[in-house]
Homoserine kinase
Amino acid sequence: MRPFRIHVPASSANIGPGFDSLGLALGLYLTLDVATAETREVVQCSPHLPEMPTGEDHYIFQIADQTAARWHKELPPCKVTLQSDIPLARGLGSSASAIVAGIELANQLCKLSLSPEDKLTFGNEIEGHPDNIAPSIFGGLMITTIAAGSVDWIQMPGVDADVVVFIPDQDLKTAAARKVLPTTYSRELATAGSSVSNVFVASLLSGNYPMAGKMMENDLFHEPYRSDLIPNYNEIRRHAKENGAYGTVISGAGPTMISLFPQGEADAIVPQLQRTFPAYDIKRVAVDSKGVNTTWG
Ligand SMILES: Nc1ncnc2c1ncn2[C@@H]1O[C@H](COP(=O)(O)OP(=O)(O)OP(=O)(O)O)[C@@H](O)[C@H]1O
Ligand SMILES: N[C@@H](CCO)C(=O)O
């Protein structure tokens, strides 16, 4: 087998009112270098990948095994060297990137010829919602739903804005951040919340970013319940707005926050934001437009 490399982008889900539906692929990557070996082995070379099982039990191998089994194949042994720019449990889709990596690993090793739709459907079954899985597979801005009985999606190439992330030095597991959400919403709230989401997506499509920013900051489905879990939630939103941001929201389930700024303006503003919030890693990140990508050595 020729060695190969799998590149999977990070993602930011929800983007405010698009709870469990919207996700943007980001130019931070989980990278797997895969080579022939007698037994399974994982070598991790990144501070973002802390203590984890390095053999049979590694999460990515578990997903690859499930994928192979689903298509009636067995995963052959291999050595995987992992590198990652994606901090774990920060709201940047690390779990989805690991799931997509496992699916793609099985796809290549077992020659499954999976389509992007196959990967999305299976990845969504594992993660339970498609808003991180879809951008990690396709790239760009993904608008998804599972409400019509399948995973249906529309892809936009990206956003005409600069994306800035505020990554705190603490984690928040998605499961914990989902526990604080209501199990049901009234018709009044669901109507209002989905109307905000409708206007948000329409604003992005029509290029009305001031309106998009206003809608971003008016989510009714998750942000009001999670804001107390997010350090400096109000301060970051206010400060970003004072410095020209269209809008700032929780990235995924948090605790990272993400802002959209007018295109070309973020690089000048980031140093000032970093001085105000020194405990954070604040940076402009590109939007990834390719999604999961395999290259052969
Ligand atoms: N590269 C990886 N290898 C193995 N396990 C991983 C990897 N990346 C993520 N995980 C698992 O996923 C968990 C984090 O998933 P979680 O859904 O809580 O956060 P997230 O995906 O980073 O954030 P969000 O879903 O809000 O964007 C980690 O604690 C770890 O168990
Ligand atoms: N839509 C998900 C994204 C994080 O996995 C949530 O907000 O819980």
